[in-house]
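Risk register update: the risk of archive-format incompatibility is retired. Evidence:
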Amino acid sequence: MPTTSPTDELRRLSRDAGACTACELHVDATQTVFGEGPAGAWLMLVGEQPGDREDREGAPFVGPAGRLLDKALDEAGIHRDEVYVTNAVKHFRFETSGNRRLHKTPAAGHVRACRPWLDGELAAVRPAVVGTLGATAAKALLGSSFRITAERGRPRDWEGHRLVATAHPSAVLRMPSDRRGEAFDALVADLAVMAGEHPGRRKR
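Archived output:
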């Protein structure tokens, strides 16, 4: 029997996730925002959830945080087109303030509801390296006791992958202007650690 290719499997997962009603977030969100990138990516970056721009466009990391991530990846020597990007939660959780939709951190139940989609992406892509962006993504994979401040940038073995946790690009954008450069450099340094874990590259 023919086997499903990773690309076809990702398409199937994306289609099925588009009809997901496993939690209440689908009611107010514009659409499911599934992951994007090559099926054979060596690196998978897992963020928290789509933001306002991502929810409207239906693609991950296309807003301000995504642009900052692209810049950081470039400085770390990683091309965006060799990376699969996704989120632990596939719908935008928000609260309204006037005409604005403001980010609201997903609850543990939302992460659990979306976990089958993330597991499916990991199984299809089979990345050598997984990078978690922010506390929600790190805790989704490593448990609630994980602390970014104490353990970011340290490679570890995790379910057949090398995993490196770092801050979310949106956290860099929220920093005071006089600290933003330092926070950005720390993000680049952690991404460079991920690059060093690439099985085909020499460790930095």
